[in-house]
């Protein structure tokens, strides 16, 4: 079983990655980090070094550019036990509408989803 997370250079992306690393350490599960072509995330070499230093088995998975689709697809392919996503805080009106990518992930995910708020 694996844990799946996206690699995004946003506060939400960093919070999701930190939570995914903690879950991988606790569950002793490998971590699959998904990044689409051209997506700004942490440098893959730097990311690999950081996670290996934490004792987490890591696999980098290239995505197609639609992170929501990529996360769901890779979670399905790997038989993931958990997917981790980051969400930003929203205004009271904004809370009525969850981001479309996050909403698709929550609806289509083949496993539990841990949503980390920033």
Automatic annotation (TrEMBL):
CDD domains (UniProt xref): USP-like
All residue ranges annotated as the UspA domain in the record: 47-117
Pfam family, one: Usp
SUPFAM superfamilies cross-referenced by the UniProt entry: Adenine nucleotide alpha hydrolases-like (SSF52402)
Source organism of this protein record: Myceligenerans indicum
Family designation: Belongs to the universal stress protein A family.
Protein name according to UniProt: Universal stress protein
InterPro entries: Rossmann-like_a/b/a_fold, Universal_stress_UspA, UspA
